[in-house]
Specification:
Largest sheet: 6 strands, parallel
CATH topology of the largest domain: Rossmann fold
CATH superfamily of the largest domain: Thiamin diphosphate (ThDP)-binding fold, Pyr/PP domains
Strand content: 5-15%
Number of strands: 22
CATH class of the largest domain: Alpha Beta
Structural class: alpha/beta
Radius of gyration: 31 Å
Helix content: 25-40%
Distance between the termini: 88 Å
Strand order of the largest sheet: 12-9-13-14-16-15
Length: about 800
């Protein structure tokens, strides 16, 4: 257990372990070292020792939790799991932020970015009492300590990172790379909140974290809180060095100055020295933050601020075993997980473990009943000032419902179904504009440089794009930039999604629109947030938060100029993998269905709502009244497009998505012109999970059979990959007759109809499929099939000659001569 400081003070030494640089533009070292009184230093160090003892105990012990008896192997867990390496640094930072809270009465929360550092956060959360309040069985006594140790990394217990079960957490440590963007999301529109976020040096190597450093250019000092990042350099990942710990000091300082931060360095390993340095540095950072905010708020002048950050360099596995078998542990990758893995078999390691645990002197920290001694309890804040009890870390406590205007006010006029065209997303932009105006401190819109492209630009009428960086004269003409804007745009889906999640997790509401081809960038972020929500749903003390709402547009079927790389509807397959308790997928085919769907999603909570709707001009199918009924049901028969009234259908034609619905309707018209006696039932699907009996939105088998029949062919024209529909509906009675068409990875620079043809979702392929599958049509349909194939060829030839689709096919509308009277 190392307690020595090297005393090095070379600013360019890559192995500098005990320097103290207050880095400004000159990177000078000029901090006074008298912040703490001897009593404060003693209590801070004792509280930190208690944290380290608990962290080590969680990994190793199942009994004899305060070492009141000689340690025996029967007191150990059989399987040793957990991550020690980052834990001492995390609890060190947490302890010092507590001092900042108690000294200056600030409002703060804590985000732990390192992937597996839960012991370093669990320990102070338990010691300040919140954990026992949430989980009374983990009480503040010997039995409670035993329960805490036993449940850590243990079946039926809790994981080794900061999961939703941990009070005070809004960030899942296993996400690795999103902590900083989550922190900024939490700080937006929270003017008195300071978000301390610890960035692990392994985590700092990820792409999402690298882009998130630029979030400082979007923090408005007038209306937002502050983010105080602590880059924790402990030198190693699992068994490799970390890049930022091995570059020269000046290069590291220049990197963060280049990102627009003012870095403060706190470096060393001697606890007493490091406590003083950390306290002094935190006081300086807080003073700068409050000064910058006060100046901006006094003038009511938003401006870009060079915010402070801390680079903390401490040994990996700080205060743990120094070496074993001639190999270094503390300060090396061997401290990452379990520093002494052989305690069950090695007498040497077993004795080292007891020596290590007793080095924290638990008898000085806890009374005989297992409670932290009275003098140390004052180190932690009280009540909601505790970071683990702060309402911002349980956003449902603060959530206010959005004030949403009547979505019907934005309706598209539809006198007759499928006889007019309109841009689907434009009216939604107007609705979002008015939501923003009515909720100026509670709602934000996020998009990666695509808000105008996605036809949502009406929102700029009430709120521009936030921009605090440099302005140029040409920005005034159409740039829609403002230092006070509430639309957040940056060409990083990772950062935007992180901002949105942090914003929603702390009690607010948001809307994110992106291109379908690029939504895959946030696959892992969606996965982790879905897992977070699924666990949070089981925790009664976590109150519901607003849903994450994702509009996926610029879709696969309208990528005629972008080509093959932009043709990928597979995000829906990712969504279906996650818990049905939190996932929702909607494919509204027109304006009015989109408005009804968006209204529902914006009012929902604890879900991830995926809305797929293209931004281009499309056929409008339903009046607002009909759209509301249709979306409420989630799917249904369109009587005006069907010919099976009061009869058994010969075939069920299904459209799901805007272009697939258009092509399915056009196929229906072709068939009814050729075969007037053919009984076709036309169904449109908006809520994709209606198809799955395993989802809470799923239709009952009886309702499904009634709609889709139990023995008739179903031609299902789908927006995405066709196998997804089979995956959802495989348990249905008539699944053997379900024939799905969708995107098949065929395409390039194609016109919309040509792309449909090469993937066989076009009207002609669908009509041919019906002829092949309906008994009685195979023989008499031969001429029709040939005519349809000839028309496909004509369409492709026209597209290749003129670069656009045949106008009479592209501008096709439903003729109501087809509609039964």
């Amino acid at each position: 257990m190392s307690n020595n400081s090297t005393g090095a003070n070379d600013n360019t030494d890559t192995n500098d372990t005990d320097t103290n640089h207050n880095t400004d533009t000159n990177d000078t070292a000029a901090q006074p070292q008298t912040t703490l009184t001897p009593d404060e230093l003693h209590k801070l160090d004792a509280f930190w020792r208690a944290c380290n003892y608990l962290a080590a105990g969680m990994i190793y012990l199942r009994d004899n939790v305060l070492l009141t008896q000689p340690l025996e192997r029967m007191h150990l867990k059989q399987r040793l799991l957990g991550h020690w390496g980052s834990s001492p640094g995390l609890s060190f930072i947490y302890t010092h932020i507590n001092r900042l809270i108690t000294t200056f009465d600030i409002n703060a929360i804590f985000l732990a970015g390192p992937g597996h550092g839960a012991p370093g956060v669990l320990a102070p959360v338990y010691l300040e009492g919140t954990y026992s309040e949430v989980y009374p069985e983990v009480s503040q006594d010997l039995e409670g300590l035993r329960q805490l140790f036993r449940r850590f990394s243990f079946p039926g217990g809790i994981g080794s990172h900061c999961t939703p079960e941990l009070p005070g957490s809004i960030h899942e440590g296993g996400e690795l790379g999103y902590s900083l963007s989550h922190a900024f999301g939490a700080a937006f529109d929270n003017p008195d909140l300071i978000v301390t976020v610890v960035v692990g040096d392994g985590e700092a190597e990820t792409g999402p974290l690298a882009t998130a450093w630029h979030s400082n250019k979007f923090l408005n000092p007038v209306r937002d809180g502050a983010v105080l990042p602590v880059l924790h350099l402990n030198g190693y990942k699992i068994n490799n060095p970390t890049l930022l710990s091995r570059i020269p000091h000046d290069e590291l300082a220049s990197l963060f100055r280049g990102y627009g931060w003012k870095p403060y360095f706190v470096e060393g390993e001697d606890p007493n020295t490091m406590h003083e340095r950390m306290a002094t540095t935190l006081d300086a950072c807080l003073k700068e933050i409050q000064s910058q905010q006060a100046q901006a708020r006094l003038k009511n002048q938003p401006q870009r601020v060079i915010w402070p950050m801390i680079i903390l360099r401490s040994p990996k596995g700080w205060t743990g075993p120094e070496a074993i078998g001639g190999n270094k542990i503390e300060g090396s990758w061997r401290a990452h997980q379990v520093p002494l893995p052989g305690v069950h078999d090695s007498e040497e390691q077993f004795k080292m473990l007891e020596t290590w645990l007793r080095s924290y002197r638990p008898e000085e920290l806890f009374d005989p009943d297992g409670q932290l001694i009275t003098s140390l309890r004052a180190v932690a804040p009280q009540g909601n000032r505790r970071m683990s009890a702060n309402p911002h870390a349980n956003g449902g406590l603060l959530k206010r419902e959005l004030r949403i205007p009547d979505f019907q006010d934005y309706a598209a006029a539809v006198a007759l179904p499928a006889t007019t065209r309109a841009y689907n997303t434009k009216p939604l932009g107007a609705m979002l504009r008015d939501i923003m105006q009515s909720n100026p401190e509670n709602f934000r819109v996020f998009g990666p440089d695509e808000t105008t492209s996605n036809k949502l630009d009406a929102i700029y009428e009430v709120s521009k794009k936030l921009w605090l960086a440099q302005y140029l004269p040409e920005d005034d003409n159409g740039g829609e930039l403002s230092p006070d804007g509430r639309v957040l745009e940056m060409l990083s889906e990772h950062t935007l999604q992180g901002w949105l999640e942090g914003y929603v997790l702390t009690g607010r509401h948001g809307f994110f629109a992106t291109y379908e081809a690029f939504v895959h960038v946030i696959d892992s972020m969606f996965n982790q947030h879905a897992k977070w929500l699924a666990i949070a749903d089981t925790l009664p003390w976590r109150l519901p938060i607003a849903s994450i709402n994702l509009l996926i547009t610029s879709t696969v079927w309208r990528q005629d100029h972008n080509g093959f790389t932009h043709q990928d509807p597979g995000f829906l397959d990712i969504v279906v993998n996650k818990s049905p308790a939190v996932t929702r997928i909607y494919l509204p085919p027109d304006v009015n269905c989109l408005l009804s769907t968006a209204n529902h999603c914006l009012r929902s909570h604890n879900d991830i709502n995926i809305i797929v709707c293209d931004k281009q001009e499309h056929i409008q199918y339903l009046s607002m009244d009909d759209a509301i009924k249709h979306c409420t049901k989630g799917l249904g028969i369109w009587p005006w497009a069907s010919s099976d009234q009061d009869a058994e259908p010969d075939v069920v034609m299904v459209g799901c998505g805007d272009i697939p619905t258009k092509e399915a309707l056009a196929a229906t018209a072709l068939l009814r012109d050729r075969f007037p006696d053919l009984k076709i039932r036309f169904i449109n699907v908006v809520d994709l999970f209606r198809l799955s009996p395993e989802h809470e939105h799923g239709l009952s088998h009886r309702d499904f059979d009634s709609l889709f029949t139990i023995n008739k062919p179903i031609i299902f024209n789908f927006h995405g990959y066709p196998w997804l529909i089979h995956r959802l509906a495989y348990q249905r009675t008539n699944h053997d007759n379900l024939h799905v068409r969708g995107y098949r990875e065929d395409g390039n620079i194609n016109t919309p109809l040509e792309l449909a043809i090469v993937n066989q979702i076009d009207r002609f392929s669908l009509a041919i499929d019906v002829i092949d599958r309906v008994p009685g049509l195979q023989n008499r349909g031969a001429h029709a099939k040939q005519a349809f194939r000839d028309r496909q060829i004509e369409c492709i030839e026209y597209a290749h000659e003129f670069g656009v689709d045949l106008p009479e096919e592209d501008h096709w509308l439903w003729t109501h001569d087809h509609t039964p009277q």
